[in-house]
Specification:
The protein is mainly α. The protein has one domain. It is 78% helix and 0% strand. The chain has helices at residues 3-20, 24-32, 38-74, 80-89, 96-112, 119-126. Helix 5 (96-112) crosses helix 6. The longest helix is centred in the middle third of the chain and has 37 residues, at 38-74.
């Protein structure tokens, strides 16, 4: 693995501990139970959009999982504003602007893979 990817995976580990108090392996395990292969997903992000897109994909994975846990705890879905505020509060590089940029890049990536129908809806269902 090249040094740039190694640094991103180290950041992923650090962020998993920061948000959940568990190693990245546990996050990968939880998400693999529903069919997600994070190594594959992150490699595709790297190939499609480079280090920035891979970093944002990693952060968005963590924050989306945290949002699911939080929404379950409070018994309702967060509004977009609440979600963005919550994501930004964790200070791992995601705010409304970076979320929008990530979503646009992810939609383009899915479009390039042949998911042409309502890619934004697919993003929310997939991630």
């Amino acid at each position: 693995m090249n040094k740039f990817k190694r640094k991103l995976y180290a950041e992923f580990e650090s962020n998993c501990f920061k948000i959940f108090g568990v190693p990245g392996a546990r996050v990968r395990e939880v998400l693999s139970e529903r069919g997600d292969n994070l190594f594959e997903k992150y490699e595709e992000a790297w190939v499609y959009g480079g280090a920035l897109f891979m970093r944002q994909t990693m952060a968005f994975t963590i924050l989306s999982l945290e949002a699911v846990y939080h929404e379950t705890e409070i018994g309702r879905e967060l509004t977009e504003e609440e979600r963005n505020d919550r994501f930004e509060s964790f200070d791992i590089g995601m705010n409304a602007d970076t979320i929008n940029a990530w979503q646009e890049t992810r939609a383009a990536q899915l479009d390039a893979k042949g998911f042409r129908y309502d890619a934004k809806k697919y993003i929310k269902a997939y991630d």
